[in-house]
Amino acid sequence: MARKRVRENDVDTSQRQQKKRATNPSDYHLPPLPVIPDPAVAKAASLHQGALNAQTPLHASLERLEFLGDAYLGFLAAQTVHARYPQFTSGKLSQTKQFLVCNATLARFTTHYELDKRAQLPEEIRIKEGTDSKFWTKILGDLFEAYVGGIIVSDPQHGYATVDTWMAELWEPLFTSEVEDEVVNRNAKQELATKIMTKGTRITYLDNGPPQKSSLKGRDIYSVKVCYTGLGYHDLCLGDGKGSNKSEAGYSAASQALRNPQLLEIMAKKKEHDLMSQAQKDRERKDTQGDVTAA
Question: How far is CA 94 from CA 17, 75, 79, 174, 279, in A?
Answer without folding.
Answer: 20, 11, 11, 15, 51
